[in-house]
Amino acid sequence: MSDTPSKQRLDHEGDVAADFLEELLDILDMDGDIDITVEAGRASVAIVSPDGPSADLKRLVGADGEVLEALQDLARLAVQVETGEMSRLMLDVAGFRAGRKERLAEVGREAVAKVLETGEPLSLEPMNAFERKVVHDVVLAGGLVSESEGEDPHRYVVIRPA
Questions:
Q1: Contact 146, 160 (CB under 8 A)
Q2: Distances, alpha carbon 43 to alpha carbons 38, 57, 148, 153, in Å
């Protein structure tokens, strides 16, 4: 049996998470549309506003995404309760993760350029798992190697010449 969940299972995870999040939005009396996709072998759910990011939706993100992380954990738990399986579902609200991903990719590209220039390893600031994955992907594409070091919540990426 493959370790990669089937598209059907991932679609179901997205549907379960979307139902949970729609109920939450109703309880909070907030407006938002739910978009469900499957990306990179995981279900991805986004809460968006057709009129652009609203103040309400930004409250669901929090200052540094901490509310978003908590909502993602709750959505994953809702999926686990329904399916009996752990979920790697990704949640985005008001485009926060998409914007954060691009900013992190730029940090990664700048770090790769610096390591190529100096030939010295470079340690980045602590990041959560999502953020570290974005940087690792950029480093790999840049032809260098990287690894995560430290313990959460202080885990960080070290970039080294190949």
A1: yes
A2: 5, 21, 24, 25
Given this model, what pLDDT does residue 142 score? 95
At the fourth CATH level, the homologous superfamily of domain 99-160 is R3H-like domain (3.30.1370.50)
Q: Give bridge partners of residue 39 from the DSSP assignment.
A: 42
25-37 pLDDT tens trace: 999 999 999 999 9
pLDDT of 21 reads 98
Residue reference for tokens 């809460």: 47
13 vs 21: CA distance, rounded Å:
12
Burial degree of 157 (CB within 10 A; 0-12, 13-18, 19+): buried
**Domain 7-94 belongs in CATH node 1.25.10.10:** no
Q: What is the pLDDT of residue 1?
A: 43
CB 48 within 8 A of CB 33: yes
Token pair for residue 139?
């480093």
Query: What mean pLDDT, rounded, does the chain reach?
Result: 93
pLDDT for 147: 97
